[in-house]
Amino acid sequence: MASDHPSIAVAMEDDPQPLEAATLLSPSSSGPSFNSSSSPSSSTSTPSITSPWAAGLLISAEVVGTGILALPFFCSVITKPWGLSYLALNIGVNYYAGARLTQAASIVEQRHHVPPILDLLELSQLTTLPNLTLTIYYTNLILVMGSYLLTISTSFSSLLYPLTVPSSILTFLIVSILIALSLRLNSMAKLGKAPTYVSITTILVVVLLSLIGAKTTADQPPPTAISPFQIPGSLSGISFAVSSQKLLLNVRKSMDSSSKLKINEALFVALAMYGLFYVITILVAPSTVPPLLLNVLKDGSLMKRIAGLLLSVHLVISFTINNQCLCHSFSNKFNVPSSKVAFATCFFVWAVSNGIPFFEDLTSLIGALTTVPLTLALPVLYAMEAEQSDWNGLHGRMAKLIVFVSVIITVSGVLSSFWKINKDWTTTTTKANNYK
């Protein structure tokens, strides 16, 4: 979900036991995650994470994604001081929501005598909110994959500049190749966590190259007029980049029994890690920055070609794992062949990337429509239901406040995103894959 997010697919359960498979974010935000693929019986295998620091690093690697490439722009819309303040607030609320989520999972596991819960979807099946969670979750997956496809077309264009292939054709070719690749590769989970770290390394290098290039490039983009209607969308875009709950339970399940109780410490470590990097990125970025940070680099320059290549690697990994998990999930839950799910995914993802060919608008929409409810509102509702807490108590008042604010951000962010999408479709005169 980072960033993104970004972004954010999580493997779903097989009846009667959960099937551990590759998981990806975020709809982080954002970056890919790989756990050992296994049969149902493998859920009893020895976990590989033995310390909160290792778990925190993995959470950071899973969260940081394309959302960070939009952070400087969103903060420029609401000004850096307000952007940094809202970022800090999001980090605090994410920690509280994450702690409540793990508390809910622990209570549900004890009450129903089930093994450690794998993800939000599995937890939701033991609450009164399964259908709502399922709808938001799959909507998040499709939108995030659409964002990946849109950004891949931009990164390819940067790598192969000057590329004159129309965006609609380029995205169709890319998504067709990626879907075929996902079907050919039965599972990438056997690669372990290596792709996760490759992915975060590439995205961090892209950010560093962009920030360095921004300091050495004289022709920065001119300031653009900012409308107050953009503010809610920018807030939801920042929320998209920070979200950490979507994969939290998956990491918790991978920790050994002695470390599992320290999952909140791991979450704190993760939020401190990527939160600090986010702050540095925002502070170092120019005051006037394009929506996609990559585009601060000069077209055709060696630095931008390298950044485009690295960003493409990050996105291909993310897209492939998301698609594999989505196909696997639908196949198991709805008894639909993976090939049919893959072709349907190909169509919907292509439609999203071409229907909303504006990176910042799509990021804002994902954050408002899916990230905020999925990672802030639902976790506290799960905890209140699991604990059967008094709504007039401390946690009850906090839950009501978080849900209330989440609804405001969701509604205003969605309206702001659609307003901006309509505005961009009306005024843009550039091709979608060259949009800046």
TrEMBL record:
Pfam families (alphabetical): Aa_trans
Keyword Membrane in annotation: yes
Membrane as a keyword of this entry, yes or no, is: yes
The UniProt transmembrane annotation reads: 53-75, 134-153, 159-183, 195-214, 266-285, 341-359, 365-386, 398-419
Q: Where is the composition biased (Low complexity)?
A: 26-46
Q: Where in the cell is it found?
A: Membrane
CC annotations in GO = membrane
Disordered: annotated span = 1-46
Keyword annotations for this protein, in alphabetical order, are:
Membrane, Transmembrane, Transmembrane helix
Q: Name one GO molecular function term.
A: L-amino acid transmembrane transporter activity
Q: Give the membrane topology, semicolon-separated if more than one.
A: Multi-pass membrane protein
InterPro entries membership = AA_transpt_TM
Record-annotated Amino acid transporter transmembrane domain positions: 50-417
- Specify the domain of life of the species encoding this protein: Eukaryota
Which PANTHER family does its entry note?
A: AMINO ACID TRANSPORTER, AMINO ACID TRANSPORTER TRANSMEMBRANE DOMAIN-CONTAINING PROTEIN
What is the designated name of this protein? Amino acid transporter transmembrane domain-containing protein
Q: Which organism is it from?
A: Triparma verrucosa
